[in-house]
Structures
1.
Amino acid sequence: MTSDAGSAKMGAIAIANGNGHDISVSIVAQLLETGESMHGNALSVYLQNYPQFFWKDPVLPCTDLATEMRNSQYSDVLGLKSLRRALAARDAAIRSQLFLSVDNVAVAQGATHAIHTLLQLFGGANAEVVIPVPSYSGYRDICNVLRLQYRPYGMDDSGAWLTEELLASLGPSSIMIVNTPHNPSGGQIQTGQLKRLAEAARRSGAVIIFDCVYDELIYEEASPEWNSVFKTANDLGSFIWVNSFSKNYGLPGVRLGWVTASATIIKRLEPIIESSILCLPDFIQRWAALALGRMSAALAPEMKARRDYLCAKLSGVAGLEFKRPAAGITMMAKLRNGSGMDLVQRLLKSHATLFLPGNAYYGGDPQTIRLCFGYSLSDIDKYTSVLASVLGRRLRVFSGAQANAQVGVQRRPFASA
């Protein structure tokens, strides 16, 4: 495709998103296709939302993958018991739920597959899925595929999102998804909120799905006291947790997630998992069972350092407002002027660099772009330099001592946003 054709395609994308509402995954795919057509291998893409370039050495150095593959067999539908046992122990430690056992865990092909199977299980003609916004668009897309009704509720890091009106709206056909820590704000459900939610759900009969795929990447603020509400296996009821190796451990390629729930719900999931994927590769599960102990709690210090590095870099970019997230791996940068999609298209065309516009999220702010600090420091340097080259750099304010030290040093002119 010529650059003229690429520009024409960019215009078509802008028209498709002209109403300013949520954009679909297909629009992001179009942006990627357009960027590749215009720039080929020179295109730099910053769309990911998981930790990268952390595991510099093999997690299990002695694993012979070729032998493992040759000797692979069908595994149990719910997953190898060794992995389920390790995941139950991991969750028991994270949430202080020491009663969890192998019977409370089912292995899935990632968190998206886990949520899909759960919505299949609980969805029905009268079901309504209650989805946080802004949020991962997959929640909405799965509902559309399964033809389930859904409605949004606002979620952020303010601690005020769980309103009495929202709780009162829950009924026996409600399936509420709570993303904690929240992507992209990094906010968590607080212990007081958790207690109120549990009371309302038990009273109404609603199903609650906690999407906790960033629950090891917490840098400030305390995690909720899960064991203050869920003290025994009998307390689990219709409360479910979903997790993934992609986000907490930076290993999206292994395609492993899991569901933690009552033994009854886990057993009910078995035929749905069997009908969708039959089972997962046993050699991947054996590797994961052994590796889990080495990986747990390993990434948080590095990701916190990368977050702080990104915030320091962004503080020098004009025209952007952002808030340091207390958890997770992403943040939304808000533009003082213009839309996120306009900036994304501008950077794609002029700098061969692709970012995610804020309204790629379901209910996302169209005046934002999503930034991920899961990238290496060198990549963070690259993409913040691209942003600064277009938006300008902030004027640095020096103290008297700093100003004196700068005498005689040639300074670059300040470029406003």
2.
Amino acid sequence: MTCELVFAPQPSESREGKRFALTPAQLILRKLVLDAVQSPHTRRNYLKALDDLFQFCASRPLSRALLMEWKAGMEPLSPSTINVRLSAVRKMVTEAKRNGMIGHEEAANLTDIPNIRQKGTRLGNWLTREQAKELLAVPDRSTLKGKRDYVILALLVGCALRRNELAELEVETIQQREGRWVLADLEGKGRRVRTVAIPIWVKKGIDAWREAAAIEKGRLLLRIGKGGKVRGATLSDWAIWSVVEQASKQIGIERFGAHDLRRTCAKLCRKGGGDLEQIKFLLGHSSIQTTERYLGSDQEIAVAVNDNLGL
């Protein structure tokens, strides 16, 4: 990598609040990387990763040895976090190569940094059917906010949406296919397009919210002011996260997020006899293997093999 990328003539701010410096080339590369990524969540993670790397490099030229040293210093972090940061570096090197800042051989050398292998299968968190029903009963559906919050929870647990997909959901996406209501041509992670069936009970909640809020087109979810009236501003994905967190706390569950409701939907589908391939389509996964890992299909928790040891 050229020395331009590591010298530090102008100040910036690290995520720890300490001042460090970025070169003009680093600023350009950071912008190229962030512009090439669609997901806001990925942008945030890549931004943290690149700034951390630039700060670590100081005035040293970037090399494979330096990247290995940087990777070794991240040992206290989880394997998934380290791998995301390495992915950000690979993206940066790719953009540098495309823009003529480094050659093919040097780029290949810098991207040849192996990921951290994650041992075992992380199952994540999910609700039982009874807990899901309890969660859906939390919003006061006699109020406008309660109707909206119910729709948020219902679409997450009933349609397995990601929170950014839900935040950006348009009324026009709700269409009829083969005699039933669906979310048509939903673009998800990796720009994969899928169509998601809407359960009847979820559609009833959507209809009640739309009628009460007088929503005919555009974004389905809108902000509600302190006076209990709809404001024109759309709802952010973090606002959706907050709705889920607050509702889950009311049923006694801490540290439960929107993605856990997506996993809950998948788990309940599987326990209800749902075909694994159909669950893959529902989730928008690229492969059956991804869905199997997501569900933890090889590990039964409710009736575990070590429950009957006879001890």
3.
Amino acid sequence: MTERGFRLPARVFGRLSAYYLVCWGIIVLVMRDAFPFAIAATLAIAVYTTVPLLAFLQGGGWSFYPRAAFRLFVIRPVLYAQTSLPLVAVSGVLGLLIGAAVGHPLAVARGFVLVFASALTLMFIIGYVGSRRLVIHDLEALIPDLPPAFDGTTIAQISDLHVGPQTSRHYLDRVVRAVESLEADIIAVTGDQIDDRWEDVARYADAFAGLRAPLGVFLIAGNHDVYAGWDDVERELAARVPATLVLNEAVPLRRDNDVVYLAGTGDPAGVQTHSRRVAPDIARTLSKVPRRAPVIALAHNPGLWPALAERGVALTLSGHTHWGQLSFPRWGWCLASPFLELSMGAYQRDDSLLYISPGAGYWGLPFRIGAPAEVTHVRLRRGPAAVRDLGRRSISATAGRSSRDLRPGGNSRVA
């Protein structure tokens, strides 16, 4: 949904078109004569869910701002179809092969396609319901050198909201109420405030501009904020949201005579988009922090944590991974795990701690299973370095109240 800003090579576009012809050709073959006008219906679905994507790729993005109706009724069906297409096509091929062995290739193939399509539909429904669930996740972060005045200080972290015109305002209000109910000393928004376009900042500001905290509200850039055009996003945030943007810098937080530094990094997407100003620069970020001063870092991409840990940062709060929007916390595995070493939950390396939030929104499809959207509530404590998982509280869909929901415990690991 980004503005025009890329070009797909012709050979890649050709291969992608061939992929769609093969997949949809298999489905047409299997479903022909399954019901009246089966071929016409299948081709209509193919056109509706493929042509917009090919147009997006061929044109290097949308030449217009996609409003709510377009995102809900064009982009979302495209995403559902692209997720399902290869699995349904493969099920058709398997059905044809197995059916050929028993003399009924089309009948068996249709059965396979219907079973796979039904299973995917059920999974999408469960995932949609899961995407509406919101929890408060209570953690304690023990920091050996935490100054006495900051012992008990609380941070409300929200991440990966991906706000756009299609985002439910009722849901955003639930997130706001959850944050406000914590009465945290610090509010940290750890990137991906918006969904892909700088125009989305207005929607984000309408919901979150009123957040306040005694020690401040702090924002950092996420990769989607950068992809949307960082200069425009930064300008809109500065104009609409009364919060402190920390970009490759650290600011002192003072209580009584004690000081803790809050640092914010850039994002690796700045390197990919040649936006050097928003690319991460860890040395610059920590350059003004006195030696041995405690540092809490906000880094959207957890891949920056090893460099921060090496420089003695006590606690890093990240997001970015969404826990793959599909996770099995008991096993410490999520859909992002095969691709990322640091993918979910808490990690520790010597005295440096990392927590990766699953985020409060979603990207792409409204889908979450095993990775509920959360507002993270971190209480700082002085003590031997560790992250303690104190459990989660579900947030009512109709009120700001919450109730204990999940058992304490978690997926803290030593890296």
